[in-house]
Amino acid sequence: MADFGGTDLEAFRAEVRSWVEANFPASLKGKPNPMAGEGRGEPLTPDQDAWRKAVGDKGWGTPTWPAAYGGGGLSGAQARVIQGEFARAGAYNPIGGMGVMMFGPTLLEYGTEAQKQEHIPPIVRGELQWCQGFSEPGAGSDLAALQTKAEDKGDHFLITGQKVWTSGAQYADWCFCLVRTDPAKKHEGISFVLIDMNQPGVEVRPILLINGMAPFCETFFTDARAEKKNLVGPLNGGWTIAKRLLQHERSGISGMGGGGMGGPSLVDLAKKYVGVDDQGRIADPDLRMRVIRNAMETKAFQQTAFRVMAEAKGNATPAAATSIMKNAGTWLAQERHELTLEIMGHQGLGWEGGDFDRLELETVRAWLYGKAFTIFGGSQEVQSNIVSKRILGLPDLTQAK
Amino acid sequence: MAVLTEEQSMLRDAAKSWVQEKSPVTAFRKVRDSGVDIGYDAAAWNEMAEMGWAGVIIPEDFGGSNFGYLSLGLVLEELGRTLTASPLIASGLTAASALILGGSDAQKNEWLPKIADGSIVATLAVDEGPHHKPEKVDTTVSGGKLNGKKVFVLEGIAANLLIVSAKEAGKVELYLVKSDAPGVSRQKLSLADSRGAANITFENVAVSDADKLTGGAELLEKVLDRARAGIAAEMLGASVQAFEITLDYLKTRVQFGQVIGSFQALQHRAAKMFTELELSRSAVEAALSAIDSDSPDVPELVSLAKAKMGDTFHLVSNEMVQMHGGIGMTDAHDAGFYLKRARACEAAFGNQAYHRDRYAKIQGY
Predict the structure, then answer these.
(1) In terms of domains, do B51 and B112 share one?
(2) In chain B, which residues have their Cβ closer than 8 Å to the Cβ of A293?
């Protein structure tokens, strides 16, 4: 791949710009990606589908993935050009979801050639959706305690067990799943397999959450079949792959800390709902001070994200600061939810109906859903364990004498 | 750690090895026990000046190296680690900034080379009460006479040159006043952190336009922001060292048959401190870099750095004592030094409450 810089990059920008002008349906301008997050429940509209197909065929939804598997095969600088040109046109990236964010990068790193040839192109084209089968009722923070068993049947495994918090399982075509292949060992008895969700031994039940929505499911496997060719990495070698995948997941979650939720700032909301004093300050001094603290902490978090990036360019190993980002980011996001709710008062508690505006209704749901931030992707306690043991070198507890 | 130039890395490494070799915390303990009025070891300060640290921000034309504020911050961070007492913040940072930003050529020529080579100590005399409130100035200049009282002046006993904020015709101005001028009287303060602070009274001290810096209240605010960012760098170093000493104790102190650092109750508090230190480092380095690039958001970034760093030093210094248990309460242990220095640094040039309010005011809420 040629190293595009300077004039080459400008030529590439011109190419992307005219391609977007020719292919992006005007009706979708400013709209979000229907396949982001947990995936789609409803079929795509003809315009949405045309845009998905156009970007997918170019590989520009996954610009830095290898062209051999349908990715863009482009440099980071070119990927930023695409991102910039899409943003300029008000176009979303139609290729998203957990296949892109978590599974794809992991399979590119650990998969065999045949696995990559089979599974990466449909992700690149946005044709198939993936869900994550990690947690179980008895294996949450202690993920390696998982019990879903895979029985060796020669050319395939039979999978039996229950997964929980499988995001988007109700829409998913495939599941990347951790299963127990050696009951005698803990971490070393786990394998990483890919399971077709469209088969009789798979049952999915959405779980209604406190925010009134059901982004996660319970997934039951009863003698579900997984082909041997869909074992990723070595038998009993799934834990290493799972840890790598969780890193991709956490970096996605911590991003919520910096940017805010979009929409009006806490300051603007406070001025609107609480009012200002004769000096233009938020009228409630206690609330004002807490809004200020959140704003300043958010700024320091953004500065740290920036510093981590700058240091990553200069050094081979990731900065120690990386390990703090999930907790720091999710604490800030939750605090922002709480402040928004407090600022809106009773008006922020509306569940549905015309007495409340769109932002008020979204606030109560976002506040409730936000409680999951410090639980999923490694709870805040697990994150603190990681920092204290891996970064600070504090020892494990031994049996008390 | 910010991405550094080769020169900056060399400066930091030089400071690090000098501090380890010549100025461990035992050196500060000696200064404290000696009760010396100036509050620092003059011989150590001479060595620091010889290495050029008093002139890091001073232009080469006036005897400095013009390395900038992030560079000076690296030195201050290393000195902060072992609580090295010196007039670097008062003289080589704060007073030097005032002269660089507001001095005439004659004023710069007279004073900057002497500040850069450490032959004199200069300081800013701004506060008039127990809380930092630079806009409240009762000290006046009228008919060529300076009258008033300044309190908690850093290195006020050692200083040869005072830069004094005073109101003249209702406007805040900064005046250069020699500390041995007739009408200047100094009273040493004995503070918990054992540094050389003083209250200074001015009684009909003769001043002229030749002693006045250019820039008034706006200049004062710029100078204060440089002082705040620099002291935040010292606080960063002290906090990191206090944390590392505490972490080391968690790994060696045995109770209930195991090292106490294996207890999750302490591990998670250590992880929290580490998180706060990383966030604080980002804020401090961003503020110093913003000063170097003369960015318009210096005031808010400095207030963020001073407030965030104050909270973190506060937390870490308290936890240092608590996690050390009884030994941390003894004067023989260093934990008390960090605790006392933390509160003095927090109060200097505006505490957390001051800077949170300032941050919001700058942004219009």
Answers:
(1) yes
(2) 356
* Cβ-Cβ contacts under 8 Å for A272 (sequence gap 6 or more): A264
Contacts of B5 in chain A (CB under 8 A): none
Q: What is the ipTM of this complex?
A: 0.90
Q: Pick the last residue of a domain from B62, B83, B116.
A: B116
Tokens at B186, concatenated: 């100094």
Q: How far apart are the first and last CA of chain B?
A: 32
- CATH code at position B90: 1.10.540.10
The answer on B356 and B227 residing in a single domain is: yes
Show pLDDT as tens, one digit a residue, over chain B (365 residues): 778 899 999 999 999 999 999 999 999 999 999 999 999 999 999 999 999 999 999 999 999 999 999 999 999 999 999 999 999 999 999 999 999 999 999 999 999 999 999 999 999 999 999 999 999 999 999 999 999 999 999 999 999 999 999 999 999 999 999 999 999 999 999 999 999 999 999 999 999 999 999 999 999 999 999 999 999 999 999 999 999 999 999 999 999 999 999 999 999 999 999 999 999 999 999 999 999 999 999 999 999 999 999 999 999 999 999 999 999 999 999 999 999 999 999 999 999 999 999 999 999 99
- A289:B262 CB<8 A: no
Residue that the structure tokens 């060595």 belong to: B47
Query: In sequence order, which residues have a C-beta less than 8 Å from that of residue B199 and are 6 or more positions away?
Result: B149, B150, B151, B152, B153, B156, B186, B187, B189
CA A249 to CA A326: how far, in whole Å?
A: 10
Structure-token pair, residue B111: 């004073």
Domain count for chain B, please give it.
3
Residue A154 touches partner B, C-beta closer than 8 Å? no
Nearest chain A residue to B244, by CA: A392
Q: What is the CATH number of the domain that holds A154?
A: 2.40.110.10
> Which of the residues B251, B258, B278 would you substitute to probe the A interface, choosing the one with the greatest number of A C-beta atoms within 10 Å?
B278
Residue B352 structural domain: 217-362
Residues facing B165 on adjacent strands: B174
**Do B257 and A291 count as a contact with CB atoms less than 8 A apart?**
no
| Residues A274, A374 within the same domain | yes
Residue A398 lies in a domain: no
Q: Distance between CA A320 and CA A327 in Å, rounded?
A: 14
- Give the count of domains, chain A: 3
Enzyme catalytic residues of A:
249
Tell me: do B233 and B284 sit in the same domain.
Answer: yes
In a domain, A360, yes or no: yes
**Burial label, A355 (beta-carbon count in 10 A; 0-12, 13-18, 19+):** exposed
Chain A to chain B Cβ contacts (< 8 Å): 126
Question: With an 8 Å Cβ cutoff, are A303 and B278 in contact?
Answer: no
Question: What's the rounded Cα separation, in Å, for the pair A85 and A342?
Answer: 38
Contact of A309 with chain B, judged by CB distance below 8 Å, is answered with no
Q: Give the contacts of A268 (CB within 8 A, at least 6 positions apart).
A: none
In this complex, the residue of A282, A384, A401 whose CB is nearest that of residue B271 is A384
**Which residue range(s) make up the domain with A167?**
130-236
Using CA atoms, how far residue A24 sits from A20, A31, A34, A71, A145, in Å, is 5, 12, 15, 19, 47
B84's tokens: 């090295």
Domain endpoint, select from B194, B215, B236: B215
Among candidate residues A96, A115, A140, the one where a domain is terminated: A96
All residues of chain A having their beta carbon less than 8 Å from the beta carbon of residue B6 are none
Judging contacts by C-beta atoms under 8 Å, the chain B residues touching residue A306 are 282
Query: Quick check: B279 and A395 CB within 8 A?
Result: no
Alpha-carbon distance of B164 to B220, in angstroms, equals 10
